[in-house]
Write a structure and sequence with these properties.
alpha+beta; 10 helices; Neutral Protease, domain 2; 8-stranded mixed beta sheet; Immunoglobulin-like; 5-stranded antiparallel beta sheet; 2 domains
Length: about 500
Amino acid sequence: MITLRTLGERRPDRSTRHGSTRLTGALVAIAALGTLVGTLVGAVASDPAVAAHGGSAGAAGNYGSAISTPRVDSYYPAHGNDVVDALHYGLDLTWHPHKRSLSGTERLVFRAAKDADAIPLDLSNALTVTSAAVDGHAVRATRSTDHLSLPVAITAGQVHTVTLSYAGVPRPVAAPGTRSDESVLGFISKRDGRAYAMQEPYGAFTWYAVNDQPADKALYDFSLHVPAPYVGIANGRLTHRHTGHGVTTTRWHLASPAASYLTTIAFGNYQQTRLGKVHGTPLSYWTPTDRPELVSWLRFMAKDFRWLEHLLGPYPFDTLSLVVVPSKSAMETQTMISEGDTRGALDEQDVVHEMSHQWYGDQVTPNDWRDVWMSEGMAMYVQYRWLDHVGGYRTGTWVDTETSRYDATYLSEYGPMGAYNPADFASSNVYLPPARMWWTLSKMLGKARFDDLLRRWPASHPHSSQSREALEDWWSAASGRDLHPFFQRWLSATRDPS
């Protein structure tokens, strides 16, 4: 998410944004999960098709990399579930800009994570389901506010395919907080027919049926249709673009599993600028045709990408792009960063912040919204390392002489960074205090050792969702020091914990 542009520029308030024995037990649990996932992935067949009437986990085909352990979120339990382990979403969507309506077909391949009497999904009641089928058999979907239930009994480990057709005028939902940069979440459209999606911590359900919780990562393919000259943009690699009969069709393939809040979609009159490949990764950005000045302005992405790879390690995905949307906010949407079109959102350090999330937040994602600090704190820390790098700020000075006077206010007003008020999502306490925590840890371990672990954590947990306990255990084991008391002190602090 978009972050503070400069420290001290704003009063810390709700509009601020970016932007032991347990160790042994956790390692055993992680090893068991790795064995399970390895078994399932090893059973994967080369054909991605799923057998009718439900197949075994081995029928996951090419989707085995998306096997997850879904959970009920401790902060927002009304969104997501621990039944559906989504493996692949195939979304064929048509946007009607003059009516501001969306219609489409969805094909969801999922693994049953547990036995259940019905298949639960999140889907906005602004979208009407016109047909539904499970494994090729028509079913009658039932609705309860923004939840969809398909009355088919499922057994843990079995793989099924859900097909839905739906249409309606998408409606965003209120954000769980009072931040001023984006008061609503999900699919947002403008009067001129432009549209985009930003949906942290939830809101994907406003435009497709989904298990809307970050522990459940899945693969995605998008086919988007919109009247020309508009074009549809989504996550991943653009594999097809064609305009015929006044309609532009684009197809996008996301090759690595993503959490639902990290998906995106945008419709508008865009032009693409390609920056070529940097270390083998193709870089590009999409800017509105009526903002030609952005074409040259955003070229800084290439040099900043090189710097981030030097700090954080090889880029974890196969492509990186950015799309400018009509918003005051920004979002680290996986491989296709969403940046608002305001001066603040397009500030270079904010783009660096969102790019750094591709490692911390996208490659490794918190599995529960209580731990948003795992993403935002590290991205904030990286942002200030970048400012140090370009000469705009001395990281040590920032931490030692300036942030301490803000941290006490953040923590006392919004609560501990590891136990914030759910009604105050993504306030200042999950940005600067954890960034300062990481700086303190770097001094404890030494910069060279810390930077080595900084790179190794995401590389050691690729395309996964992790808990704070897993992070504490890993950093303790990898550093050779018991860091549990250190993390717990910072996570629970209501005043300066240093």
